[in-house]
Amino acid sequence: NSPETWSQRFESALHPAIARFNASIGFDIQLIEYDLTGSQAHAKMLAHTGIIPADEGEQLVAGLEQIRQEYRAGHFTPGIEAEDVHFAVERRLTELVGDVGKKLHTARSRNDQVGTDTRLYLRSQIQTIRQRLREFQTVLLTLAEQNVETLIPGYTHLQRAQPLSLAHHLLAYFEMAERDWQRLGEIYQRVNVSPLGSGALAGTTFPIDRHYTAELLNFGGVYANSLDGVSDRDFAIEFLCASSLIMVHLSRLSEEVILWASEEFRFITLKDSCSTGSSIMPQKKNPDVPELVRGKTGRVFGHLQGLLVLMKGLPLAYNKDLQEDKEALFDAVLTVQSCLEAMTILLREGMEFRRDRLLEAVSEDFSNATDVADYLATKGVPFREAYNLVGKVVKTSLAQDKLLKDLTLEEWQTLHPKFEADIYDAIAPRQVVAARNSYGGTGFDQVRQALKSAQHRILNG
Ligand code: ARG
Asked: Is residue 154 a part of any domain in this protein?
């Protein structure tokens, strides 16, 4: 190949199928607002540093603004021929402002450009998700406030364990969401770093001012190393990690809601606004919302795994593989936001706790057995001895189809002389819950404290 051939090697067009294969415009058009904002900052910097004349800088900024208006009005719809959003914008800009448009890409590469766009996009999405988390927490808090003294069976191994305040159960999810909210806040710090000015990989020969563009774009800092700047996707992986944890939490709650709605539990009723029927079984009312949330969780995990695998073998710096990060991010963002919204609506108005059933449930099991052992231990009987004795009582009661509350005082006293008439109070479900007053426990006093702390956190951040 002669030098002429090399210099003209892109004379012929791409194979149409390869053009489609290569193009990202179909999805990265979602970045357009961020691309325009990033390009405006870059144009201002070019003028600010004297790399281009001030009036040209102004023309570029105005042209980019015009594209924004066109896009918002639905008049800017670039196709495959544009390859990606960055080329699409640059071409349109040149149509609008003439040859000056061709100066926009001075001292810049699509590599630092796409990195900037992605961070600007993610920054904004993280703020939305944190807001959605707060709404989700608020509805949990409201439900908890209404249900401090509503009792619900607590489980370990999905076997009845000890009864709980329903508020305590709901506040457990509040705390998970609180960590999710914090985690996203921490990740935000690392998303909020500017790679702009890294160039293709090595920096640039022009006297650019990276701190100036970073400031214009409200970034907290700039990448210290240009190679790292264009090839780092840690921030996206961290985001997918945090998103996966949000989904884990939503999925666990979903699983509980699905169980609670079943005939076997009957702890909640689903309202028509959030459930669906069956095309054949007329009696059915299905918990589609939590099922979909549980199902969509897998997608987000998949995107996390996908991005980890995408990155693990990539040599520095930019590789086209990196174009694959976008659909993963976009889909994860959309999935997390829609799941948070759906669960918030479900909790707020799509289901109702059946207090009658919950009370019935906690009154008719052996989940007060620990309290009998604790009762004896408080009166000086070594706990393990008390525990063994109560085990025996449970066994004989089961055989006689009785509950602990059905034993007569005589029967109690035959079992152990330390039992007195106050045993009945000690094993009543309400007292069983109230008595667990250790810090962070389900006792009503603790739950009221926890509610206060939760309210405080919602109001102050
Ligand atoms: N569409 C590309 C992406 O999303 C933009 C960057 C292209 N850079 C390049 N050197 N081909 O990654």
From this structure: no
